[in-house]
Each structure stands twice: as C-alpha cells, then as structure tokens.
Amino acid sequence: MELARYICVIGGKGGVGKTTSAISLAHAMGKHKKTLLVDANLSTPNAHIHLGSPMLKKSLMNALKGEISVQEAIHSHDSGLRIIPTISTVRDLKMLKYDKLKQAIRELEGHAEIILLDTAAGLNREAITAIEACDEALVITNPELSAVLDSQKAIQVANELGKTILGVVVNKHGEHRSELKVNEVEKLLDLPVIGVIPYDRRVKRAQYFKHPVTYIHPESKASKSYEQLAGLLLGKSYFESTGKDKTLYHYLLRRLGLG
Q1: Cα(10)–Cα(137) distance, rounded to whole angstroms?
Q2: How many of the other CB atoms lie within 10 Å of CB of 97?
Q3: pLDDT band at 112 (very low <50, low <70, confident <90, very high)
Q4: Spatial separation of the C-alpha atoms in residues 27 and 16, rounded to whole Å
Q5: Per residue in 193-216, pLDDT tens?
Q6: How many whole angstroms from its chain centre is CA 6?
Q7: Structural domain boundaries in the chain
Q8: Nearest alpha-carbon partner for 21 in 210, 170, 202
Q9: Of 142, 141, 144, residue with least CA distance to 178
Q10: How do residues 79-108 score in pLDDT, each as one tens digit?
Q11: Half-sphere CA count of 126, side-chain side, radius 13 A
Q12: Which of 120, 115, 251, 121 is nearest to 192 (CA)?
C-alpha cells in the first residue's frame, strides 16, 4: 500500500473560505480515493459546525489529551465525508502540547490515502505545527489584495519548512467587480493558480443544510470547480477512472511546470 499524502490547506487570513474549501475538496477527493479531513484548527475549529455536529464526545482534542486514540476520533458524515473534528476549550488550549499534533497526524497512516488538514488562519503556533505535520500545502485565498498579501506570509513559512506547495486556489471569484484578476494573483504570489472557485450562492445554501456543496449541489459551478481541482490533485489515476479528457490533466500539469 502506498504511503498516504498529507496535505494542509493554508491561508493567511480568516474569511477566505478555507474550511468550506477543505470540506468540499475532501468530499470530492473522497469519491475517488480514501480521504480523511482533519480539523487542525485547534483554537477556533468550525468544520464540525459546518457539518451539523456541534456536540461530539470524541474529537482530535481528546486524542491529543491521551483520552482516546486518534483513530477513535474518525467520524463519518451523511455525505460520505470522513472527518476528525476538533472541539476545544480554553483550558484544553492552555494545557496542550502542540508537538503531539504531528505525532497524532502520522498515526493516521494506513487509515486513508489522502489526509487533508484544515489549518488555523494566521501564523500562530498551531498553524505552523499543522504545516509541519504535512508534506504538501495548498493555498486558499480570495482575489482581494489584503488576502493575497497575507497568503504570501503563509507561503513563506511553508517554503522555509521545506513543504511542497501545490499551488493557489482563488475562492469566491467573481463576487466583486474590483477584485484582482487571476494573473495578478499569480504575479503577486509567484505561484500558479491551479483552481478557481466561482462565487456561488449555493455554497451558502449547502452550509445551511450542513452538507458539502459537492454533495448537495453537485451540478453547481462551485462543485464542478472543486471536482476539477480534486482531479488535478489526485493525478492521472482520477482521469483514467472517470474517463475524463486527459488533455485537461496534461494542461494542468503544464500549468504547474510538471509536464
């Protein structure tokens, strides 16, 4: 069995749709490979709330405190999404030893082929620890100057830690007329934009119903964009298994400078 891929979803500031994107991307990837979403935002976790489970007895925090194994914190959502949520208190955070996060994440080897970590906004200790626990990083930003400039710092940290940066995803594209163009985002970050998620009201509707948009509105523009991004990240095997046009795969590889 191949070793799992550990991918962290990073972004410099809050409000860019990082958690929403992590949920939708994990669900889309999970249709083709065994995928596990981990809410590594220890101080302000929201993934479980997005999915309609505000009260859970077993979460990542219980594993970090040594009360359960990290595998016991795996939950299955009605959509089919597999997730390790986090529920924390101020006391938990005061007592937490952050190094335990890296150990817990690596103990998931063999339980998924893709392990996707939703990280905290900013560059505090918990965000950096989550990046350290992964091998690859995916940058989520909005086409707004402040969001893009904050992403630069997250990218710098990932680079300094020796992580492979897969590229940039521009979320909520087309929401405002004054927003940055995709090529401007690429120039500012000196990285390829490998995914563009259009602003789509059905994303909010999916949140209301506590489901990934890729599950409840699979034909929406946002869902199709997440599916395309999932295909790129999964590589050639995705296009072979779905029968999709491989020219897209090779085009995206060229965009990344890999083909």
Answers
A1: 7
A2: 9
A3: very high
A4: 19
A5: 999 999 999 999 999 999 999 999
A6: 11
A7: 5-255
A8: 170
A9: 144
A10: 999 999 999 999 999 999 998 999 999 999
A11: 21
A12: 251
Q: Dihedral (C-alpha) 238, 181, 12, 220: value to the nearest 10 degrees?
A: -40
Mean pLDDT over 18-42 rounds to: 97
More confident residue, 12 or 110: 110
Cα 144 off chain centre by: 20
Pick the CATH number of 5-255 from 3.40.50.300, 3.40.50.720, 3.40.50.1820, 3.40.50.10860: 3.40.50.300
pLDDT band at 248 (very low <50, low <70, confident <90, very high): low
Write out the chain in H/E/C secondary structure. Answer: CCCCEEEEEECCCCCCCHHHHHHHHHHHHHCCCCEEEEECCCCCCCHHHHCCCCCCCCCHHHHHCCCCCHHHHCEECCCCCEEECCCCCHHHHHHCCCHHHHHHHHCCCCCCCEEEEECCCCCCHHHHHHHHCCCEEEEEECCCHHHHHHHHHHHHHHHHCCCEEEEEEEEEECCCCCCCCHHHHHHHHCCCEEEEEECCHHHHHHHHCCCCHHHHCCCCHHHHHHHHHHHHHHCHHHHHHHCCCHHHHHHHHHHCCCC
**Greater model confidence, 245 or 115:** 115
pTM of this structure: 0.90
Tell me how far apart the terminal alpha carbons of the chain are, to the nearest angstrom: 26
Region of 8 please: left (phi>0), alpha (psi -120 to 50) or beta: beta
- Residue 213 bridge partners (DSSP): none
